[in-house]
Amino acid sequence: MSNLAIGFTGLGIALFLMALRMPIGAALGLVSFIGIGMILNLKAAWGIVTAVPFNFVGDWNLTAAPMFLLMGYVASAAGLTTGLFRAMRLFLSRLPGGLGVAGVAACAMFAAASGSSVATASAMARIATPEMLRYKYDPGLASGVVAASGTLGSLIPPSILLVLFGYFAEVSIGQLFIAGIIPGILSALIYMAMIVGRATVNPKLAPPVDDHPTSAEMLSALREIWPLPVLISGVLAGIFMGVFTPTEAGAVGAFLALVIAAVNGRLTRDVLKTAFLQTLSGTAGIFIVVIGTVLLTRFMALSGVPGFLADSFIAWGTSDLMIILLIAVLYVVLGMFVDSIGLMLLTLPIVLPVVREAGMDLVWFGIVVVKLLEIGLITPPVGLNVYVIKGALGNLVRLQDVFRGVLWFIAMDVVALGLIVAFPALSLWLPSLMR
């Protein structure tokens, strides 16, 4: 069997093992070890398997991941995000579908602090969706708002997916963070416009809410949520102005979260214990998957699969747009069955050489990939965020209602993705202004 055949066979076996629900890191590591052993020998494979994890975990740039996780978990455990939906409701409920619009805005702000789509969806589902259902909102819209808006945690910085993409693509994580700001806000605004439009055409979908908040109530709500804008703007402004690197920004963000929690009198022993344990668990889970991916990258390089695909695309005269469309199909299909981190890390060793050979901007491509992963998080039949919402709400909504509700948001994601692809400046303008 040729090296190329070994490579393609290994990829097929890896996908099969993941379909059987084998942990992604274990599946990639096992397939890579056997594949490298077949191409070289078992001694060389063992040497790579023992050296790669140590070198990877010791990489300074990746310390940003646990630090940003810690920042988000401290903010969540200390209750710095609990007043978001209430505040957004006071300001936005007068709009058609105002509670849905408020849900999108609250999810976007929560996502910017947590960096996790699943954490955003789970937390906001318990707060925003029951309130919408209480006002007789359509169950599909009430649950779909949070399921879809929760995905904004993948794009709005700081994002763990962007950290990992930057590491593997050897692209500035700071530029990726700044590049995600406009596409993230654009996605949120498109969601809001769709909700307002649908509620205007069909008021029964989202009945009006007769809220008349006083100036004192609105000011009180602002005082309650001030820590989050301070935390987010402090981190992003420091990266944008070159005050500190993205890796340092993770530590700064975690420190700011601790300080703000202490100032608010919420930094208790239980908060620290919860935040640290969640950070350790989340970091371990991510790093196990990434170690498997690093081994897969070595395996793919030895097999020649990435070079073969890159040469084939160039030989076929495939345009940049066609390459993006093919990659989009790959991500959307696999995104129905594989979680976002696993999918991105599984495919990067394959698609990055193709994209580099085509001369595409990798910062822009990183935003496109993360947007595709967002779509995968709510695409049937799996749609991880959909099941997170169902698990958080129990019998309040039916699973089919959540899937029905997210279809409108998937359509809006396609619109946003089309704009990002058609107008690369949406992603690249802000990074071009960085010092």
Write up what this structure looks like:
This protein has one domain (3-432). By secondary structure, the chain is mostly helical. It is globular and about 75 Å long. Helix 2 packs across helix 3 (42-57), helix 7 (117-134) runs antiparallel to helix 8 (139-149) and helix 13 packs antiparallel against helix 14. The protein has helices at 3-19, 24-39, 42-57, 64-77, 84-92, 98-114, 117-134, 139-149, 160-169, 173-179, 181-201, 215-225, 227-240, 246-263, 269-303, 305-315, 320-335, 340-357, 362-376, 384-393, 399-422, 425-432. The mean pLDDT is 83.
Oligomer: single chain
**Structurally, how many domains make up the residues?**
1
**From the alpha-carbon coordinates, what is the Rg to the nearest angstrom?**
22 Å
Helix- and strand-based class?
mainly alpha
Name the overall outline: globular
Q: Compute the number of helices.
A: 22
**Terminal Cα separation, in Å?**
51 Å
